[in-house]
Amino acid sequence: MIASTSALPRFQRTLLWCLIAIVFFAPWPLGSNRIWAWSLLHTLIALMAIGHVLVSAWFRQPWWHHKYQALIVAGPLLVAAVLCLQLQAVAGFSTADPFQSTMMLQRSLYLALFLYLLSQYCRNHDDLKLLLTGIILTGTLQAAYGSSIYLAGMHGSWFFNLPELDRARGSFVYQNHFANYIALCLALAIGWMLSELSRQQRTLSFRQWLRELSTALLSQKVLLRLAVVVMILALVMSRSRMGNAGFFAALAIVSLLALWLYRNPPRWLKPVVLSIFVLDMIIIGSMFGVDKVKERLQETSFASETRDEVVLHSIPLLQEHWLTGTGGGSFYTVFPGWQQYSFAGFYDHAHNDYLQFAIELGVPVTMLLGLWLLIALWLALRSMQQRQTKLYQGVGFGAAMAMVHMLFHSSVDFSLQAPANTLLFCTILAMAVMARYLPAKRRQS
After folding, report:
1. How far is CA 191 from CA 9, 148, 178, 257, 421, in A?
2. pLDDT digit string, tens, across residues 143-180
3. How far apart are CA 396 and CA 389, in angstroms?
4. Residue 181 domain-assigned?
5. Are 440 and 389 in contact (CB under 8 A)?
6. Residue 329 lies in a domain
7. Alpha carbon distance 87, 82 (integer Å)
8. pLDDT of residue 5
9. I need a surface site. Which of 82, 379, 382, 436 has the fewest CB within 10 A?
10. In angstroms, rounded to a whole number, what is the distance separating the alpha carbons of residues 396 and 45?
11. pLDDT higher for 113 or 213?
12. pLDDT at 302
């Protein structure tokens, strides 16, 4: 006997809330970048999967609702498939570190499971808006927490009493992971904020302009603007060079694309974007440390940096294992054998996500992952151009900006090796796909 469907929407909304809670939870226990932390994250995802199975079986719901769900889960499933081949030593594949490859396989499968569940229960305009709100709230609270610790001059964080340095890092161990996480949340907040701007191109009298301004000040746009300011301050105080440079470069690039793609661009698009550059970065940022970011950029040199040497010493390793890779998660195991001791230090990551993925998984798989990202970026840009719903256009803008930022940041760091950042970034890729294909709000019953 099929259960009554009257209770189905309540169960679906409850599961969606739980998935958003997982996104909110992920960055707080050290960015989930410890075995115990990501194990707890996996447990929460597994509980949601059990709930999904029970709801689907009880209400006889289909296991797949849309074809685009296959695109959303394609990336982590591809990685999981390659890791299985490496662990089983099939067709020339192998791994130098079976334990780390097994850990990476678990993370990939749970990530694919999370994206599948998200695509099942984020099914319309209101669901996507709820998810967007949860992500921006998470980024704002992380930014407020990281800024407060930094400005208070505390020697230990509130979370696990980690020793604090001279940079904001929120609940993350590594400040560049914090900066990357904030930048991704910022991109979505800016996209949503710009989508709420008026599209009317008529000339306003002073009274009409004043009325429009007062209406805007009492709307959700003010809260979004405040959230943007808080997150930009935290980004500046992280003193992450590529975190800041990549974010503002992505904002400039996607804003220029928006002027070309939007059929009816918002009248206040250029002034708002300029205000972010001038008011936030230059005026407010100068009060909280943007000059120190400039100093770090000016003082950067090949003589003082060892990241470039890690890349150079990794090239022979890539040349030997370019086809099938050395095994997922095995970089820190194999790199010491190729490291020349012209520089000191132990590196468990390549400080370049492209290079590390290519070494561990092989160049062909890395290129397929890049294609997966480019398809999502293309869909985000198409949403900006073709969707008439403001929210979908805003998500398209924010997702495109987040992806461009990640393309920059991944060239000098390893943000995708942090589970919280990977979960958020893949969620944004899923949102880019959903913004392109979800039904318009006016068609909802």
Report:
1. 29, 26, 20, 13, 19
2. 999 999 888 877 777 777 777 777 889 999 889 999 99
3. 11
4. yes
5. yes
6. no
7. 9
8. 62
9. 382
10. 26
11. 113
12. 42
Distance of CA 74 to the CA centre of its chain: 17
Q: Average pLDDT, whole number, for the chain?
A: 86
Domain assignment present for residue 165? The answer is yes
HSE of 90, CA atoms in CB hemisphere, 13 A: 7
Express each pLDDT in 388-419 by its tens digit. 899 999 999 999 999 999 999 999 898 999 99
Cβ–Cβ contacts within 10 Å for residue 127, how many? 18
Domain count within the chain: 1
- What's the domain range around 121? 8-304+343-443
The answer to whether 126 and 355 have CB atoms below 8 angstroms apart is no
Please answer whether residues 396 and 438 qualify as being in contact, where contact means their C-beta atoms are separated by less than 8 angstroms: no
In a domain, 202, yes or no: yes
Gap between the Cα atoms of 346 and 349, Å rounded: 9
Instruction: State the CB neighbour count (10 A cutoff) for residue 39.
Output: 13
Classify burial at 323, counting beta carbons within 10 Å of its beta carbon; exposed 0-12, middle 13-18, buried 19 or more: exposed
* Helix pair 353-361, 68-88: axis angle to 10 deg: 60
Instruction: Collect all residues with Cβ–Cβ distance below 8 Å to 327 and sequence separation of at least 6.
Output: 86, 94, 95, 96, 97, 98, 100, 101, 360
